[in-house]
Amino acid sequence: LTSVGDEPLLLAAAGAPVVVGRDRVAAGRHLLALHPDVELILSDDGLQHYRLARDLEIAVLDGRRGLGNGRLLPNGPLREPPSRLETVDAVVVNGAGGTLALPAGLPRFAMALHPGDCHALDDASRTLDAAGFAGLKAAALAGIGHPERFFDTLAGQGIAVDRRLSFPDHHAFVPGDIPADADAVIVTSKDAVKLARALHDAAQRARLWVLPVQATLAPDLCEWILARLKTKHGR
To answer: Among 78, 100, 120, 142, which residue carries the largest CB count within 10 Å?
Structure first.
């Protein structure tokens, strides 16, 4: 488990075969060798892996930040230049916010995240809604690309926290990152994967609560992908 990150573990938990590797071509071949019945492979962050054959290219943009300053990492938020939008097949916009100037005719899908009640790190059957956190000294902790989105989601759920703790994306958590004086520490599902491996003290783990979210896309992205593949491959 220590050789992979949080996102592959979350994907694997959904029940789909997952292979991780820097060489995406080799990873795809290995996945097919392990699961020859697989008919569709999705490559996360695969847009810039040009050796990897692809039927469709889908770019994901943050609705609030858009293209940012239009520069590539590390001087900006982009992994590909803005001109790359001229060649992709579709765009998924995560969340509402600013105005995005997209190429004419480019299919656009709106993604929204719908939070549920928080559940205990070690027992998903134990849940708390906003009222359950009332009177507790709570902290929100996030080590994701855009922590403010998580904090705003908590506020939208009516969950008040005393502190907002931001860490870099893919941060390797250690026990000292958890505030000792908090009655409850609320984290994302992504961070929960790492924290479950980093924390061994039962009392510390018992204070962690996970906010699950369910993504919806409109119009139906799965339907669009299957239709495009059927048109391209004739089946």
So the answer is: 142
